[in-house]
Amino acid sequence: MPLRRSGDSLNRNDIKSQRRSLRLKDYGYNCAGSYFVTICTYRRENLFGEIDDGTMHLNKYGEIVNECFQAIAKHFETTAVDEFVVMPNHIHGIVVFLDVGARHAVPIRSSQRFGKPIASSLATIVGSFKSATTRRINELRQTPGLSVWQRNYHEHVIRNEQSLHRIREYIAGNPACWDVDRENPAAATPEEKDAWLI
Question: Most Cβ neighbours (<10 Å): which of 6, 29, 106, 112?
Fold first, then answer.
C-alpha cells in the first residue's frame, strides 16, 4: 500500500464530516491523573519491527519511537511515563500528569483553545511525540514528508487503581496477544473492542 505524503490533497471536508471527537466534553486533558493512549501508524503499516513468539523485536524505527516515548517526561516536566509498549503498527502507553499543586483544581473547559492545543495538554504531548518521531524516522529512511502516524489517537482517562492495574497488564501482555490484536490487519478473530476495560 503506498504511503501518503503529508502534502497530498484529500477532500478534508469529507474527512472532517466523518470524524467524530473521542474527547470527553468539558474535560481538561492536562488535569492530574493517568491517561491511556493508543497511537496507530498511517494505514496500520507494520513499521516498528515484528513479533516473534510473543515478543516484540524493535527495528531502528521502533527504537526511535521507544526512545521518544520514554523522553516525554524530559520535555514535559509535569508528566511521567508509566507502562508502555511499541507494537509493529501502534503504541500503547500511560501518560501521567503529576499533581503539582492547585493547577489540577482549576476547571479547564477544553484541551484546545480556538483549535490550538493548550500547552502541556495531552493533545500537545501526543502531537509533539508524533512530530519528533516522524521527523527522525523520515530522516533515517530519507522520505521527507511521508506520514508515519494516523491523524488522530485514542485516549482513555484512567479513573481508579483497579483500572490502572488492568490497563498495565493489557499493555505488558499486548505482544503475546498480537494474533488477536484489533490493530493487527492479519488477525483472523480480533479481540473485542476495548478489551482492557473492566
Answer: 29
